[in-house]
Every structure is written in C-alpha cells, then in structure tokens.
Amino acid sequence: MQLNGKIALITGGGSGIGRETAVLFAQHGASLAIADLNPEGGQATVQQIRDAGGTAVFIQTDVSQAAQVETMVNVVVAEYGRLDIAFNNAGIEGAPVRTIDVTEAEFDQIMAVNAKGVWLCLKYEIPQMLQQGGGTIINTASVAGLIGAHSMPAYAASKHAVVGLTRTAAVEYARKGIRVNAVCPAIIRTAMVERAIAHLPQLEQGAMQNNPSRRLGTPQEVAQAVLWLASDASSFTTGATLTVDGGLTAQ
Predict the structure, then answer these.
(1) Which of 80, 124, 155, 173 is catalytic?
(2) What number is the average pLDDT over the span 58-76?
(3) Torsion over CA of 102, 107, 109 and 110, rounded to 10 degrees?
(4) What pLDDT score was predicted for residue 167?
(5) What is the DSSP secondary-structure string of 42-58?
(6) Is-above-0.70 flag for pTM?
(7) Does residue 200 carry a pLDDT above 80?
(8) In whole angstroms, what is the distance from residue 136 CA to residue 238 CA?
(9) Is the pLDDT of residue 190 over 90?
(10) What is the DSSP string of the chain?
(11) Residue 196 pLDDT > 80, yes or no?
C-alpha cells in the first residue's frame, strides 16, 4: 500500500479524518495538497507533515464554489505536475433536527458542501486524470448514505448523493483508468462529532449501544481504509462503498 511518488489532494484536510489520512499518505510516500476552508487547520496539517520530513502545500478552498475548486486543482497541477489521488472529504453535519424542522437555508448549505462539493471536485479532478491517463478518487460518504439517519435528514440526503455520484463516476470512467470509490464511516470521534454530541449528549451513548463493537471509530481507522482504496492494492475495486462502521450496517 505504498504511495511513493504519488501526488494526493485531500479536501477537508485541516482536521479529523482528512488530517489523519494526509499524515498517513505522507508516511507512505505521497506528496500532499491540503485543501480546507479553515487556513489555521490546513496549515497545521501541512506543518505536521513537513515536520516529519514530508512534502505538503495548503490551498484554502470552499468546495461549494466552482471557481475555487477549479483553482484548487489547477494549483495542485502547477505545484506538482499531476494529480494521482483525490480524497474528496470536506463536509459539514448541521444541527440534529427532524425532517420537518430543517430550515431551507440549512438544507441548502449541507447539500452545497457535501453533495455539490463532491460533484465539483469530480468535475475538475477527472479531466486532469483523463489527461494524464488515470487516477484514483475516494469520496467521503457515510453509513448515513446507506441507511436512514435519525434527526439528520439533510446530512443523510447529502451522503446518499455522494454514494450515487461515486457509483456513476466509477461506471463512466472505469475504462479510462480512473477508479472512484466511497468510504462510509459510522460515527467517528472527530471534532465534528464532538460538536454533535455537545448538541445531543445522548448521541454518544446511543451510538455505542447501537454498534456491535460498542465504541466509536477513530480517524486513524478510517484513514487506513482510505489508504487501501488509494493504493494499487485495491486495483480491481471501483464503485465500492467501503463501510468502516464496527458492524453497524451488518445488523
């Protein structure tokens, strides 16, 4: 699962799953482009990689804005000459509310980042990969993209959309040397989840009780799955939804 000489772009790389995956990619030989809306978090990830002897640059990006996503990909190519791996991971969760209580503005914002943002990344990453003869893309979906998610209607809708985009792009470009897969985590102990727990304290205990493993996952565990999908070890895997969920969806 080595990535020696590979150029990898990670959106949402300033924290959580994105940061852990970036660090792991660098440890396995990749050069990184870290994209995030938050410059402090993104620069901190870059510094962590550089301090360990790796190569990384930061690109401030709002993935819901087409011009910024196009610029992001152009900067990666200008800096490194190519784009071998894209991990489209940026996402937001929203406050936990039932379907009828979501405001239109909240729904639009979550869909803009989580669904439209992934589509825009695909829109600008795939042409570059076609030009260079191939590449690998991993999108962050969720178990909420495979099953219902109580009190997270907009989030669930956005992650179902990510699964649909992943499968469609995989079918369209399989013969062109581009693999497109999705990683589907259950509740992972990240800053995003800690915010959700702060709004809904019973979320943590309920999540552990409902999971056969009786615990939350870690960002490092998801990063290992993404590494496999990014590497040649998964060369015959495309259009897949890889669950990292402690057995949650097996019930």
Answers:
(1) 155
(2) 98
(3) 100
(4) 98
(5) HHHHHHHHHHTT--EEE
(6) yes
(7) no
(8) 9
(9) no
(10) ---TT-EEEEETTTSHHHHHHHHHHHHTT-EEEEEES-HHHHHHHHHHHHHTT--EEEEE--TT-HHHHHHHHHHHHHHHS---EEEE----------GGG--HHHHHHHHIIIIIHHHHHHHHHHHHHHHHT-EEEEEE--GGGTS--TT-HHHHHHHHHHHHHHHHHHHHHGGGTEEEEEEEE-SB-SHHHHHHHHH-THHHHHHHHHSTT-S-B-HHHHHHHHHHHHSGGGTT--S-EEEESTTGGG-
(11) no
- Residue position matching structure tokens 């996402």: 91
Mean pLDDT score of the chain, rounded to an integer?
Answer: 96
Q: Is 80 a catalytic residue?
A: no
Q: Which of 180, 204, 200 is nearest to 190 (CA)?
A: 204
Res. 192 pLDDT band, cuts 50 70 90: confident
Q: Is the pLDDT of residue 198 over 90?
A: no
- Cα separation of 139 and 207, whole Å? 23
